Amino acid sequence: MENRKQTIEEFAAELSSKAPVPGGGGTSALAGALGNALGQMVANLTIGKKKYAAVEDEIKEILKDLEIRQSHFLKLADEDAAVFTPLAAAYGLPSQTDEEKEYKAQVMEKNLLEASRVPMEIMREAAETLKLMEILGEKGSRLAVSDVGVGVQLLRAALTGAVMNVYINTKSMKNRDKAEELNREADSLLEEGTRKADEIYETVRKGLKG
Amino acid sequence: MENRKQTIEEFAAELSSKAPVPGGGGTSALAGALGNALGQMVANLTIGKKKYAAVEDEIKEILKDLEIRQSHFLKLADEDAAVFTPLAAAYGLPSQTDEEKEYKAQVMEKNLLEASRVPMEIMREAAETLKLMEILGEKGSRLAVSDVGVGVQLLRAALTGAVMNVYINTKSMKNRDKAEELNREADSLLEEGTRKADEIYETVRKGLKG
Fold this sequence. Notes:
The structure is a homodimer.
Chain A: H1 8-16, H2 24-46, H3 56-82, H4 84-91, H5 98-139, H6 145-171, H7 176-209
């Protein structure tokens, strides 16, 4: 069943079980979706308000962008589960003869690459969404600024969570150049994204605490 | 409708809307529930495995504890929405005469206290759950260690998210001693909890990246 069609209670129960999916990858995508949704909430609370008329067009563009990224986050949660089955099957292939070994290595490599693509896309989406959150934090309704703060923390969790699944898959890849390239991109998204999230969050927190 | 009975898609859509609830508070509770669920997954992947027989009893106790805290997280998500209605109503009370002013101040104070209680409980639950995650990270199945990493980041988001709702409500409280006391507890849970989450996460990350 697609995660997005499950109730929260059902998803939490499946996540708790020892079944391999949903796991950390799908949860990271979901964290991204929740952070994104809070951004949309802030945009929706800003649009149509006289006080924010000067930024209304910009906020409307951000909302449209967030909506597209939201459906991507929800799709990625399901994709994370979908790429697991062929990878688990590849791990189970026989590897007695040289021919079998070579075939298994080929299938493994292909599936590891695909399994690292999904968390990498979660990270890219989270990083792009953080840029939109930054603008919402500066120009969006002051009444909803705390939701920007909560939202960036969920996007931060999407980044820090998804990078784990990049590492797990690149670790077993035979093509070390490709593996290092993926790790470098992931580390850079992680570093830049968490720094941005922390900056936005601290600004919101100081403003709220007074 | 209770959040836990909604599908993920429905919850995300409601969260995105300009309706005041669900908002950052409910999302923080949900982040806690997702982090907790990943902890349960790690426990379930450890229990029954020969390799971890020596710690099985301890892990079973942790699982029981996580299950109780999980139902509390899901309950707190709904409570966060439930305390909003009377608080919004209190903001709308008339305040022309001295009598009206005094009555409004009393009702406001009571509802602000209740509205800060919910995020404070989310923070306490997240802090306690992090302690269990620390043990799972040390003694749980090595195959699921990345899920400990993702889980602690979601619990971190629960802490950093919920503290916003503590600040918002304590800020308007007339009883400044009580407000400061609540802020102090929140800040201490925040500082200690994020430090612990970051420590556990870095240990997991270094182990995975190799």
